[in-house]
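Structure, all two chains, one model.
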Amino acid sequence: VNEKDRPDIPVLKGVRTEEKRGAFEYRSENVPIWCPGCGYFGVSHAINYTLTSLSVKPEDFVMISGIGCSGRFPGFMKCYGFHTLHGRPLPVAAGVKMARPELTVFAVTGDGDGLGIGGGHLPHAARRNIDITCILLDNTIYGLTKGQASPTTPQGAVTSTTPYGNPDDPLKPALLALSYGAGFVAVASAGEPDQMEEVFTQAVTHRGFSFVHIYSPCLTFDKKLSYDFLRTTLKPLPSNHDASSLEKAVGVALSGGFRTGVYYRVRRKTFDERMEDIREKALKTGPSDFEKLFL
Amino acid sequence: MTSGKAHDSFDMKIRACGIAGDGVILTGSFLVEALNSAGLYILTFNDYGAEIKGSGKTVFQVRTSESEIFSRGGDIDLLIALNNAFAIEQLGDLQRNAIVIYDNDVPTYVKEKESLMSRLSHNVIAYGVPMGTISSRAFGTTRSKNIAAVGAFGGIFGFPLEPFENYLKKRLAKKGGELVEKNLSCLRMGYEYGRTEIRKRDTFRAPRPGRKRSERIVLNGNESAAYGAIAAGLDLYAGYPITPATKIMEVLAKDLVKHGGSVVQTEDEISAIATVIGGFFAGKRSMTATSGPGLSLMTEMINLAVMAENPAVIINSQRGGPSTGLPTKSEQSDLNLAVYGASGDSPRVVLAPTNVAECFSMTVTALQIAEKYQLPVIVLMDFFLSNRQESIEPIKVDPAWRKSTNIAPEPGTEEGYLRYRNTGSGISPRAIPGAGRFFYTQTGLEHDESGKPAYTTELHRTGTEKRFAKMKGILKEGPPPRVYGARGAKTAVVSWGSTFGVVRDVQKLAKEDGVDMAAVKVPMIYPADVRWYERTLGKFKRVFVVELNATCQLASFLQGHLPGIALCKVPFVSSLPLKPGEVYKRIKGDLR
């Protein structure tokens, strides 16, 4: 596919595409339906770059998504993708990983998908430490249904369903992930491909549940969260940030989360590893009842 | 079936009752194991309240027979009363000439009009056994009354002692010699008392033991389904606890990990079915089990499996509804939800085992069909089927059951691979992640053959036809409907699930009255073999459909396909599994 057919993506200006040509290996022939200027284009490129530099084969790569603008993600990638239901990418991705631990599995979700309708799954994917990368694309709005308030829409914001201002306080995604026990929590801006690539690379190589919160502008329905706003508001974590300290990570997340980088990274046994331990323990108790009855 | 006259074939419905501490459950499993190894057929029925323990009143019921058992039968033939006061509450369920074995040396004084004896009708045959005294002699306490009672049961009806002794030895093997000896001595004393001290006035005689030891195994429906799943190479079980399906997960949690699989208790039923869909997407057989409220939560995911053409297996053990309903009661009222529980036109497969052995075989079938046809398969069990124990013929597990039934694309066809290629059969070769460069994205949106979302009239029409085209192949592979005893019958009685066994017993009742009646089993509810029904049911003068739900959900479903045949609905709302007698009473007048 000729990359000239792609919509012009302002955010990618200056990216050295020539050097990362291999990344196009991960693109499907479907042209994204996202609006011009959508932050997801940048995220998509950063994922492709990450997979290229980590040499993850597309045939071993599974991307599970939910519903919303983020839900269409796998359709634009060359991978084994599944565009599932609203709010449900995490448990589907968990099933994939449980069945086939050798696959690289991404769950791509949005602020509405992952924190609204599907908010109940995040704690459990995190505490089970399922070795997948969860990317929460946060544009603080329901974009696909044309601009309604989401769980991360700021209080007071005017949207089509909150014409007099949003009465609800927004959630803090990184803080939630940390309190649910995620072993890897990071924040990045969709306007910074290099930053995303760095964070994604760490997320993919981290053994365990990795949660990445991406601030991503929706230029169509949310004029506030613009690239300019992100450039001026988001600051990298202080250079002396200790990613092994939950306290430090929670402190940053509590302060509003407008810091980018890897907040927290600790290695714990993954679900597969724990399941392997359980299998070993079970086998020590002797043959199964099934064997006694039928074999 | 009737009593009072000489029994040419041994068939006895036994109930044991008592309060906490009387050991009713142990008495039950003791009887089941011993009678099974003595070569008799077994079918148990436990009706317990919603919450564990509670009042402490416990009841255990088992029907045991020389010939195959289809239902729990009618009224009780024998009541083993471990607690006399509680036994009074059971008397209404006794048949006219029933037998009561009771403890005749109750240590506490009971007013005469409150005693069990004063409440028995004069037809009832009462056998007093000094259970407490026997237990005291063996143990020094009255706590093992139940062992004495089981011993007396064996002695009174002339069962061999050996299977009873073997059960105790097996059960207490880990506890050591002295306890085994005490229990055995208690059992033998009870047995001797029953054999020599009781003046037998009933007509039940234990059948003469066969030369061959019984090979049959005793399982309940939940265990059977769980073992069926292991036999079919289940790799991933995801579930959320819910009565009456929880036992399936408990069995798999213990066993599946020993066979290399994984078991996960998810945060809710939505996550459970999502995990199953993810597991199957990744190429491994996956399953969940639930009950009505859980199935309600799963409907959207099941619909995704239909549209995205992803395999999934859901066992749904029905309880009383609607809503949270009657968690520990039996009903067949989730058929509509299983068949129709979807937005859009959503073809799936709905199977309904009618006995414990079929819970095993249909779980195997469900996993095979789901994987091959890339759609959800719902197995409808019910509370009664889940919890009842049956003696079933040994199952020879075939390693071929584990073999993947997925039709994968040929190597070399990666270029231009279409995930949803229209092949005529409705099955598109499905590439498993990691198995080569066949890239695609499954979706719950309407899509073209490549999987790209598209909403044109033409694509929606061909897509719908494709998804329904699978039904043709499934009708050939799924368990077919069957008629039992059509010869001479003017009337057919159609039923499904655990009610089918009841209808088989109704058939016997009709036969005793000299009337032939055909029993029709529907093991696969959806898809329905309409031509078979037209051909088969069209021959009968009258067709009844008997169901344990208020609206006759199967009849309503079938009637839509069979405009030429009038189906007479025979609905029951009871919350308990049907008794053959009550069904027979309703249709008796119309059988000739």
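Chain B is about 35% helix and 20% strand.
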